[in-house]
Amino acid sequence: MPNQAIANFIAERIPAVEANMRSVVDSAGVEGLRTMLRYHLGFADAQGRSERAPGGKRIRPALVLLSAMAAGQPAAIAAATPAAAAVELLHNFSLIHDDIEDGDTLRRGRPTLWKVWGIAQSINTGDAMFAMAHQALLGSVAPAERVLRAMHVFASMCVGLTRGQHLDISFEQRTDVTATEYLDMIAGKTAALTEACCEIGAILGGSDDAQIAALARFGRDLGVAFQIQDDALGIWGDPIRTGKADSDLAHRKKTYPVLVAAERDPIFRARYFDGDVESRDLASLREMIEATGAREATEAAATATYDRGLESLSGCGGAPEAIGMLSALAHSLFARAA
Amino acid sequence: MPNQAIANFIAERIPAVEANMRSVVDSAGVEGLRTMLRYHLGFADAQGRSERAPGGKRIRPALVLLSAMAAGQPAAIAAATPAAAAVELLHNFSLIHDDIEDGDTLRRGRPTLWKVWGIAQSINTGDAMFAMAHQALLGSVAPAERVLRAMHVFASMCVGLTRGQHLDISFEQRTDVTATEYLDMIAGKTAALTEACCEIGAILGGSDDAQIAALARFGRDLGVAFQIQDDALGIWGDPIRTGKADSDLAHRKKTYPVLVAAERDPIFRARYFDGDVESRDLASLREMIEATGAREATEAAATATYDRGLESLSGCGGAPEAIGMLSALAHSLFARAA
């Protein structure tokens, strides 16, 4: 299936998700808080005037909606639209707090929320968006038992995210992080959310337990594969396409290829974590990583995880249109590697 | 009913609530995060060793359990125990983030979480406790429709809390805050939670709509009355009993009596917000407040709100034992004013 089908699906279905997000956020009840929420989501500028700033690719809501279609029920998309809004709000809540925790000053080309309004108000605005994500999910149009089950998955995912974030922050202080620990961290930080997207979509769309579990596995593997690939792109990708330009190596980020290389080559580990390597030596760091075979190991790990995810997907017995589009979405995410 | 009945009730019923809190928190899945959660709740020291530090008075869980008893169903306390854990976790989440936002370094006589572990990990730990509060609530033993309804109330309350906190932070920069704006702020920051405690308890205990609404009003009024009284105690209370010793005036806190006085006396407003009044002049500030009649106005506002709350309670038609204990709990909170 061509990526055009996905692009069409997103163009057709995401506006209803965004309308849901807007209506939840607009219920904030106090103008200053509403402006901050709308600013972060790209709906308004810092003065509260409507604008249309980049708000992300809305991959996660698309995963929810397409997973909801798997059971083949006609009303599935409407049933899952509030949940699609919920996961996007939740994702954005985590970005607000991550930006504070990491001290990042730019997000999607604009100053981060805390940079404009300060840390205190921005922690609180993140909390508001967290609460509103739950409000959105509670608007799901499905039997009470299904909505409750989705809430359970959502709550566990939120705990998983904070677990992953705890590990990520603690890794900053360490030079002995293993590749296995790293995979454990991204299982929370990246994959918990994509897993929950697919699982919640399937629950609300009316899938049976086996299909729900298969789609959840697909979502998890997709998230892990995507993160590992993103790590590879940060080192070997086209800087124009990734917008990264060696910054991962320059900032001594602990990514999958780096940690694999560090396990294999103690000299590389020492040079990488010493921090006294100049920017002009980034090429030599890259060569050291390659010499350990870590590049191939990274690509193999990403591909194996991706393939396993697609196997779960193709074996889930879902409606062919939905499965075809989920597969195309996965492919388009993965085809970023060029 | 003597306060002893309340003390007995708390001694008998709160251990099960705390056991629920512990089991939710212990599922954190990573030792460092678990230690931080347990430290804040008073279950452990900063090294993760079990200890029994002050964890708060557990008023909110008691409100949940007693409101659940109103419908007179024998299993009500068991049904509502997870919700009682949820509101206490939620309350503690808000304390973790408030301490960061306010820069407070002490909480219940121990260093605040961020003071021990830094801001980044502590924002994230607050988020974890927020998510876990939802997990706890989802453990409620009640029909799915009732649990979902409780989740709705919980989510709205969380949004209300962030609304109140947004206003509270924004008030710090302003010298023109009105007493009406202040009441609007505490409606979110203090009363939203006590209201939700009673409403959720009643929902899970099996109350009908009228009883749920009456108990919700009782909870809201109790929270507002308690906060206004707390403001009065901060100025006129016995410093030994309140532990405050004029700090509200010294820090130029915008409390209800101060804002009433500022509306009535422009000279007081200017002196109070100028900030050039020495500590030794606190007595004269207090006299200026009293000269406007703000002390009487504060006491009248607290009493009227408290009385209205008790009226909702006594008219709710609940089981006499539960209503008697809720009334005694309210009385014991209010009798702090001496």
In short, what is this structure?
The structure is a homodimer of 338-residue chains. Helix content of chain A is 75%, strand content 1%. Chain A is mainly α and 338 residues long.
Structure explained in plain terms:
The structure is a homodimer of 338-residue chains. The first copy, chain A, is mainly alpha-helical and 338 residues long. Chain A has one domain: Farnesyl Diphosphate Synthase (Orthogonal Bundle). Chain A is built from 16 helices and two strands. In chain A, strands 1-2 form a two-stranded antiparallel sheet. Chains A and B meet through helix 4, helix 6 and helix 7 of A and helix 4, helix 6 and helix 7 of B.
Defining traits:
homodimer, 338 residues, mainly alpha, two-stranded antiparallel sheet
Task: Itemize the secondary structure elements and their pairings.
The structure is a homodimer of 338-residue chains.
Chain A: H1 3-26, H2 31-41, H3 59-68, H4 76-102, E1 106-107, E2 110-111, H5 113-117, H6 119-138, H7 144-172, H8 179-205, H9 209-236, H10 239-242, H11 247-250, H12 256-264, H13 266-274, H14 282-291, H15 294-314, H16 320-334
Antiparallel strand pairs in A: 1-2
